[in-house]
Amino acid sequence: MSVTAENMCVTVNGETLAFTPGLTVAGLIAQLGLDTRKVAVERNLEIVPRSTYADVRLTPGDALEIVHFIGGG
Amino acid sequence: MDSYVGTGDEWTVAGRKFASRLVVGTGKYKDLPTTAAAIEASGAEMVTVAVRRVNLSDRNAPMLQDYVSPQRYTYLPNTAGCFTADEAVRTLRLAREAGGWNLVKLEVLGPAPTLYPDMPATFEAAKALIKDGFEVMVYCSDDPIAAKRLEEMGCVAIMPLGAPIGSGLGVQNPLMIQMIIEQAKVPVLVDAGVGTAYDATFAMELGCDAVLVNSAIAMANDPVLMARAMKAGVEAGRLAFRAGRIPRRGFASASSPMTGLIG
Question: Which branch of life, at top level (chain A) (predicted)?
């Protein structure tokens, strides 16, 4: 496997996952099969605004939190 | 009769008007269809929701929004499960991004078995959230001094507990709730402790602006029926408060005239 084809590891909701380098947040959400309108993303403790999903590229070691609303009191 | 009762008895929080004085939680239901049916029956316009990680191993799981429309109901994201100001701010920033609004419910709880509001942590989180532009409805102890301080800090609603969360004991300290109501210039909601409809009625008769109920509806044998009962209870309590109850007296006072008796 060449260096450029090597996968990068990022942490999503506490799980370490491997993706193609250069993946954007929009790409990540699509690969995970999620609906962008129903989730919010935090990357390395900073909110990623929905309007920038297509522009923000993940880098190896990023820690992401992807959340949604669930029942609560 | 309904024209006598009037339709203009709304309450306002952070500039948003609500006709229903019952706010309901969306937790603890057995499934999402029951959640949706109970909320419909409650007549609530505002619902509390929690913010949690998406389950990556079950991506097709149904989502709350598919059953409880954020277009129809005002979502009030909470900070349940947060034990520090940092966690509360992070959670609600995510909620703001997911939902696009800044009206939130702050709750920082101590450990079981009390789950009592952790007031020092609540103050710290309220300060951080207000600084970050949130409109904070705050769950708090039934302490009039703490309630006043939260209001002065800029919280948009004060939400003292009636009794411990999920206990169903009703308002345990009506005197303090009443003191909080009397001094407050922002809405006061009794949040937590309601067990059945008359607890909600009692809270409303004290003069609160609204009541927040979750467990008492979600955990009832028939949540949809209990939701309807809560709606009626809240309405009854509000009307009775507006009507003005008779004073309590330590002696009898006949209801029928004592004159004109046959004889």
Answer: Bacteria
ipTM: 0.88
B85 in Cβ contact with B120 (< 8 Å): no
Asked whether the beta carbons of residue A15 and residue B56 sit closer than 8 angstroms, the reply is: yes
Q: Which residues of A make CB contacts under 8 Å with B?
A: 12-15, 32-35, 38-42, 45, 47-50, 65-73
CA distance B95 to B222: 31
**Considering Cα of A46, then A52, then A58, then A64, what sign does the dihedral take?**
positive
Sign of the C-alpha dihedral computed for residues B64, B65, B67 and B72 taken in this order? positive
Query: CATH fold of A8-68, please?
Result: Ubiquitin-like (UB roll) (3.10.20)
B52 CB neighbours in chain A (<8 A) are: 67-68, 70
| CA geometry: angle B137, B86, B128, nearest 5 deg | 50
Closest listed residue to residue A28, CA positions, set A63, A1, A3? A63
Would you list the domain boundaries of chain A?
8-68
Instruction: State the CB neighbour count (10 A cutoff) for residue A57.
Output: 13
Q: What angle do CA B22, B28, B34 make, to 5 degrees?
A: 75
* C-alpha distance from B213 to closest chain A C-alpha (Å): 8
Task: Give the nearest partner residue to A65 out of B53, B99, B214, using CB atoms.
Answer: B53
Compute the radius of gyration of chain A from its Cα atoms: 13
- This prediction has a pTM of 0.89
Report the C-alpha gap between B203 and B248 in whole angstroms: 17
